[in-house]
Amino acid sequence: xxxxxxxxKKRPSAxxxxxxxxxHAAQIPDPTTGAVSTPIYQTTTYAQKAVGVHKGxxxxxxxxxxxxxxxxxxxxxEKGVGGACFGTGMSAITAVFSLLSQGDHAVVGRxxxxxxxxxxxxxxxxxxxxxxxxDTGDLEAxxxxxxxxTKLVFIETPANPTLKLTDIKAVSEIKKNAKLVVDNTFLTPxxxxxxxxxxxxxxxxxxxxxxxxxTTVGGAVVLKHKKDHEDLKYLQNAMGLIQSPFxxxxxxxxxxxxxxxxxxxxxxxxxxxxYLEGHPKVTKVLYPGLDSFxxxxxxxxxxxxxxxxxxxxxxxxxxxxxxxxxSSLSLVTLAENLGAVETMVTHPATMTHAAMSKKARLEAxxxxxxxxxxxxxxxxxxxxxxxxxxxxxxxS
Length: 396
Ligand SMILES: Cc1ncc(COP(=O)(O)O)c(C=O)c1O
Hints:
alpha/beta, Aspartate Aminotransferase, domain 2, Aspartate Aminotransferase, domain 1, seven-stranded mixed β-sheet, five-stranded mixed β-sheet, 12 strands, 37% helix, 14% strand, binds pyridoxal-5'-phosphate
């Protein structure tokens, strides 16, 4: 690229479409070389011309140009003032809860990724933080749980793995002085922008759809308020909760195709949800795009462009049939992840949500027979053929 064309290359404006922003928003050609792909700045430190005279980077725990591009890209897509990236989704969640102080209280959705209540109950509670779990789909329950000590309301919508929804706008209107945090891992900003709906903080396990190819674990937080962004960046450096330049680079690459991937995930999931719903050996299907979904009208209102690639279902024959089904699949992989191009199946009770007590799991609707499917972007006919043969083996 010539010097001239580098100069004329501008960042797209906020009015451009999502796909354009995902590719270009924070990713201008490298100022030093013109490299179109953001370089991996694999460096610990940065030479200073004189003491305190540097180009904005001093040490890679404090800041790294590759990671910064990912942080800026996500902040633009999630409509916040700034972002911060982390080594895992759990470290992103740890960082957000670390904004609280001893004695502070948080209201947490009853149905969230199992690692979140494990972090709250077994670790953060030791530092004097208090938690109340509520069905955040029930606004009265949320309202009742919020006290003057409540600093955060933490929700996941759709929630893992029951797909239970929370009305983000309605919760933002009753949250009083608390900050509303939305784990947006399942839909991504391609389908839902929580800050637009009233959230203060949005976060991701970028391990899932954002990176999308089963190659990294990572996390990200985007903040609506400048002070929260400053506090989180301080905390990130002080606690050392960072992401590596290589993982950030892979995630930037994934982000560029997020829009097309999410469209295909939605299309495939709708086809498979309808197939499962019509199958005589299937007793229950949970997918927000089905008319039978208990919160179908909220789904249509809140999900601007689609309902995502996640669904859960139960087979006739419960746990035993579910186990046999999971091990009879051949194209679909039995694995503990979601949101990648490959279709994956999980048994939440023994895998992703095994850290929860049985009582808490059942209260959250995570029955022993529930099977979670992360629908990938393969040809849907091939997926259906695989599901079909596995159901036939599992349920006689
Ligand atoms: C919705 C959600 N949030 C957070 C996490 C934690 O992310 P990570 O595994 O990247 O630490 C997960 C992991 O499955 C998740 O599903």
